[in-house]
Amino acid sequence: MDESSSSSDSASDVEPTNPSMWIIPGQYKWEVLRKRTQKAHISQRVWNTEHLRKIKTMCGKPQGGPPTGAIPQVVEEWRPETHTFHMTQGEMMITLQDVAGILGLPTDGTVVTGSTSEDWHAACAAVFGHVPEAGEFHRSSDLRISFLDQHYTWWTDQEGNHDAEIYFTKAHIARMLGTWLLADKSRDARRTDMGGCHILLQIWAWIQFPPIALPLPPHPEPGTHYGCRFNTVEKFKPHEVTHYRATLDTLCRDEVVWQPYIEYEWLDVTLEQQYLWLAAKPIIYFHTVEACQPDRCMRQFDLDQPIPDKSRKLRGIHDHTLRGKVEENWRRKLRPHIDRWNTKVQHIVLPPPLYGLMSPNHA
Question: How many CB atoms are closer than 10 A to CB 249?
Fold first, then answer.
């Protein structure tokens, strides 16, 4: 069903069935968001009396890392039509500026993608020094974490072996990527609604929305990344679902931090790379493509918010999975999006600076 046919849906399809609610939720006009999308959105179930309903996430974190909390309720504010969070004070998103500041990762370079028809046994032998057995692959090209747990856990047995040190280091990086940094929900799709980089989303939410955050630790020491300030956060007992949801739904103007990095000294980031954060471009990770539209969230860069262009629609891209794609060349399949990424300097949006408080009409 296309967007034109969805516009004929009756209003009752998206109205709540709970008569006790004192306000009718949802859109007054469906010009940006779509009724068809709303039917499957988590907010629809919440409005229809399922107040304890929440998104199930595949959360992973390193030992001693920051705790998780409020992630499902933050994700409820995400709208796939605009690729942004629709908050009470306006649209927001996790920008490449946040990726550089919180995780300390480079935000420019070659797209990470390729083909699934490689000789993965030979590749593992070259990277890890060990050839996996047939049962240690998932979907023929996805190495199971159990392979790393079985062969690269006890480092003390390999002390003094330089080659083993390199293999164990690579295995540790692979384990971090596959568990808590970029968790893959497709392995457990029936019980999980969301995978991905939860630690980035959690710290971003704490920084942007202080009412749902722990008391923020001091600013990081010089020479460390902004996200390092959370390394000392101890375990805590999260609030109930309804608490986080109500807090996010009632955020006031002074309870949103639009520019958290004003006093932060960027490490290894040139001014040219900072300008690239303002480009409307696709974000690509192997087979996954997501639209990054900072032109809808200019306040996060201390810039005036003009009326943004129409959101880019990535039809069919969000449904891409690796299931059954044993002979797929993703670099060729995603060529238009890769070309857009490579020419992102041509798509930089640079409105004038923001002076004073923005009019509520912009929100």
Answer: 13
